[in-house]
Amino acid sequence: MKARVGMVTIGQAPRVDVVPEMADLMGPGVDIVERGALDGLTSPQIAALAPGEGDGVLVTRLADGTAVFLGKRAVTPRVQAKIAELEGDGVDMIVLLCTGTFEGLLATRPLVEPDKVLLGVLRGVRFAGRLGVLTPSERHVSQTQARWRGCGFDAVVVAASPYGASEPAAAPRTCADAHGAVSVAGAVSAFRAGGVGLVLLDCMGFRRDAREHLRQALGVPVVVANLLVARVVAEMVGA
Q1: pTM higher than 0.85, yes or no?
Q2: For a surface tag, which of 75, 83, 127, 219 has the fewest beta carbons within 10 Å of its beta carbon?
Q3: Is 214 helix (H, G, I), strand (E, B) or coil?
């Protein structure tokens, strides 16, 4: 019998940009059921979920391929609701498609939280040099630095969008003050200057091609969040 794995994106399902690569690693013995925290919402409703003062900043992809900034406080209850929905659908396991840290999520089925998976792996690997972290926007840089340095890592954090040339909308702000100081290719010089010994692509939107570019350019290990999580899930379901 196939394992049924639920996946919750903080944006809109299906995540055609990342789930197919994850599914390939999980193999044919897994059926994936996707849900999105923003499924069915209108543009004004999504805009109302933008980050407020002092809120954690998240970025995600909509079904039409555009990307938006969200506030963690506003989206967390919607994530919890989708977890409950998937449990009602009878999935065997649930995977959160976001590397952000969410406190207090509840689940009766195994819940895979990528931020905790990444931290566990990095704490189990010794490497020379600093930790390079690619974060999805300039608005994420300070919180990403605080997170990884708080976990004991000397992190070099660089912003680059995994969502192509179009900048995520920061509704109600404009794209001009959003993010994207460098491309993935542009991150190479910053990581090289920072003396990194391992790079983490700290967003579920980064893909295999970004890993290959950075690994070839820097000659250091590169961890892709969504692929690592997919391998963990495959092991757990026996795929």
Answers
A1: yes
A2: 219
A3: helix
